[in-house]
């Protein structure tokens, strides 16, 4: 698969790689990295197996998180991920007048027609409808439960979707 058609995986952190809200976990969503020196024992909840599973999908994995570049320093190593590009997102904020989340327009713009998967715990029906209408290529939005986060089964859903793309080869594992 050539670079211009290889799917992108936009990857959230809070509630996606880093679960919250479950038993013994942080009660509230986070919107980015902690202040320096703040203890974050919940970072140990990040599953180090997820990175290799995601990388094995043969996509371009891109951070789509308020952590921005800090994701590469704090989260990536715990998730088994190398340094990844970071989506160019606006500042974190509430849904706009159309009900769109703060990442939605930016991710569709960044995808620029390439197929993409967006893995996030905070995507509304308005976001889904807007993506369906405005994005020129194929897309899969995988909404995960904040208290659980992304699982191997979720990665399996992505793999199945990739395998159904028109130009997929060898089960979506081509590089
Ligand atoms: Mg999130």
UniProtKB/TrEMBL annotation:
Residues 30-39 have a biased composition (Pro residues). Residues 21-42 are annotated as: Disordered. This is Secreted protein.
């Amino acid at each position: 698969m050539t670079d211009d058609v290889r799917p992108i995986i936009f990857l959230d952190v809070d509630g996606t790689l880093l679960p919250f809200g479950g038993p013994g976990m942080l009660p509230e969503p986070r919107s980015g990295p902690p202040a320096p020196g703040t203890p974050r024992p919940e970072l140990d909840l990040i599953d180090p197996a997820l990175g290799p599973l995601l990388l094995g999908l043969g996509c371009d994995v891109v951070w789509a998180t308020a952590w921005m570049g800090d994701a590469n320093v704090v989260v990536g190593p715990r998730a088994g991920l190398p340094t990844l590009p970071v989506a160019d997102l606006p500042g974190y904020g509430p849904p706009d007048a159309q009900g769109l989340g703060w990442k939605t327009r930016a991710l569709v713009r960044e995808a620029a027609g390439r197929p993409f998967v967006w893995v996030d715990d905070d995507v509304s029906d308005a976001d889904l409808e807007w993506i369906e209408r405005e994005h020129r290529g194929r897309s899969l939005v995988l909404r995960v439960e904040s208290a659980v986060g992304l699982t191997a089964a979720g990665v399996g859903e992505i793999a199945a979707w990739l395998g159904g793309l028109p130009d997929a080869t060898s089960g979506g594992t081509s590089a």
